[in-house]
Amino acid sequence: EVLLVESGGGLVQPGGSLRLSCAASGFTLNSFDVNWVRQAPGKGLEWVSYMSSGGMGIYYAGSVMGRFTISRDHTKNSLFLQMNSLTAEDTAIYYCAREGDDDSDAFDIWGQGTLVTVSS
Amino acid sequence: QSVLTQPPSASGTPGQRVTISCSGSSSNIGTNYVYWYQKLPGTAPKLLIYTNNQGPSGVPGRISGSKSGTSASLAISGLRSEDEADYYCAAWDDSLSGYVFGTGTTVTVL
Questions:
Q1: Which of A43, A47, A68 would best serve as a mutation to test chain B binding (most B beta carbons within 10 A)?
Q2: Would you put residue B30 in left (φ > 0), alpha (ψ -120 to 50) or beta?
Q3: What's the gap between Cα B29 and its chain centre?
């Protein structure tokens, strides 16, 4: 079965850091473009970051630029999101999503999400 | 704030047709593909439409998408209770160098 499973969420104080993980099973994550998307409580979906299959193409939303870093480890078949200088506005459920292998760029597989709460 | 604008809500009775609009600009919808996602509370988003008007396998044919200029639409025909959800359009934005999601539309089956 093709799956993405996020982990690493939790409660963190403002100004703190957290590293999210997204483990893939049933396929080789390194062969796909991947993204992080978040949803704050009561709000809509917000794209956070993108990494190409080769790792050379990386993009960030303006709201996280300079604070978040996307990376992947092909030996662990996993994607990561290092989040620094967190604020209350970063409180959200974070989803990793794979783009399909048909050049459509559609987010065809999503993880179940991991909750990040930034609060003192 | 989102650069893709959707109506906050839409509704219909079972069997009716509901359409959701998504308004963007030349840097996103005007030049790139549009995608539609369904979001139910407590679950991950689900891909409904890709490349403007294609439905993945498993998505019923009564759900369709279209695009014209800098706007796109999602249509749900034969409305069913299980269609009650939030719906989001999305597209790559060349000016922002990133994906943008719509503001989201909550569909209610009366």
A1: A47
A2: alpha
A3: 12
pLDDT-above-70 percentage for chain A: 100
The span from the CA of A3 to the CA of A25, in Å, is 5
Report the pLDDT averaged over residues B10-24.
98
Question: In 3D, which of A38, A61, A108 has the Cα closest to residue B59?
Answer: A108
User: Is the CB of residue A34 less than 8 Å from the CB of residue A51?
Assistant: yes
Tell me the mean pLDDT in the region B69-89: 97
Nearest to A108 among B39, B56, B100 (CB): B56
Per-residue confidence (pLDDT) for residue A109, from 0 to 100:
96
Higher pLDDT, A16 or A103: A16
Contact indicator for B84, B97 with CB cutoff of 8 Å: no
Which pLDDT score is estimated for B65? 98
Name the residue among A28, A19, A75 with its Cα closest to residue A53. Answer: A28
Q: Long-range contacts made by residues B61-70, C-beta under 8 angstroms, separation at least 24? A: B65/B34, B65/B36, B67/B29, B67/B34, B69/B29, B69/B30, B70/B23, B70/B24, B70/B25, B70/B26, B70/B28, B70/B29, B70/B30
B1 to chain A: closest CA residue = A46
Supply B110's token pair. 């009366």
